[in-house]
Every structure is written in C-alpha cells, then in structure tokens.
Amino acid sequence: MSGAVTICKFVGTISLGLLTGVSTTLTTISLPALLTLPTAINARTTLSYLTSRNKVLSSYLRHITTFTLFSAYLLSPRRFRHPYLLYTSLFTFASGAGVDYAIAVLKDGPNQARMELDLEAQGDDVNGEQVRQTVEKLQFVEQVRTGVAGVAFAMATVGIWGDGA
C-alpha cells in the first residue's frame, strides 16, 4: 500500500508542476505574442486554437493531479494521512472552474463568455480591439490560475519533502 501512495504522490506532484508550467507559459509567452501578430484575423484564429488546446491539456493535468493526490490521501494509513494532500488536491480542482466562477462573479459577470462567442462569430470582420481585450482578460484569468496552481505546487513539494517520500 505504501508504494501505491508514493506513486500517487509522485504522479500528482509532477502533473501539478506541468499544470503550473503550462499556465505560466501561456500567461507570459503565448498570449502576449498574440498581440504582435500582423492582423486581427490571425490573432483571433491563433487565440481560438490556443484556448481550445489549453483547455484540453489543463483539464487532463488538473484531473490527473486531483485524482492522484486525493487517492494518496485516501490510501494513506490514518496515522500518515497528511492534510496537505487534501489541500493540494482541492487547490488544484479550484484552479479550473473555481477560478472561472470567482472571476465571473467578482469581475466580468456573464459578459466574458458572450464576448468570446461574439469574437468567434465575427467571421472575417474581426475587430482588433475586441481581440486585444479578450487576450488581456484571458491573460488575467491565466495569471490567477498560475497563482493558485503555484501555491498548490509549493504545498505538494514541501509536503513530499516533509514526508520523505
């Protein structure tokens, strides 16, 4: 049983590190680069591709991390059941829909989803200012996700180090 717990902790922490790296790269490199593209059509097309791929990859990594760390928490003997596993899996789970919901309630309201749909439906008549606003809002959301995932990764790293696993 101890081997399964160790593997779950290892896989969860590595997946969480990858999730944090993907979110950080998107925030600091990929999204700012979209604003330098020569036309709004290219920027919108690239933004659509980037967001769809990011949603899939981040979702997989988030689910793997949450499942493995929560499984490690449940499989651990009661005496060695450290709450950092539970907290880390909850932070990872919250870095997805939880961040979207919090930002929608606090900042954007229901307008963000409508704005992205309007941007998709424009066809060849793309307004560059709308693309820029969408990129900047997505960049803010990813910065928040990076922060939440980074805190979870730090907890997982310190927790595994403390476990000696």
UniProtKB/TrEMBL annotation:
InterPro entries: ATG33. It is found in: Membrane. GO terms for biological process: autophagy of mitochondrion; macroautophagy. Signal peptide: none annotated. Its main location: membrane. Belongs to the ATG33 family. This is Uncharacterized protein. It comes from Pleomassaria siparia CBS 279.74. The lineage of its organism: Eukaryota, Fungi, Dikarya, Ascomycota, Pezizomycotina.
